[in-house]
Design goal:
5 helices, about 80 residues, mainly alpha, about 60% helix
Amino acid sequence: MSEHLANLKHKVFGDHRDKTTAIHEAGFANEAAAAEWADSITTEPLAEVTELALIKQIREARPDLTLATASYIAQRAKARAA
């Protein structure tokens, strides 16, 4: 299946899954692993990146993630960087 079609049901009808479940389904061991991955894909320190810019970078790196999952990962990454 194309990476762009993964999670299609959640993208069309809304992602109402528990965010921890969504992170596990995306292949991350836990929230910390997802946040570390988000930190690794940024070109600037997380403290200097806006949450919106981080979400954009996450979605560009992993188009299979829903907006809700990408937003949650960005929030967790920003919280860990604070």
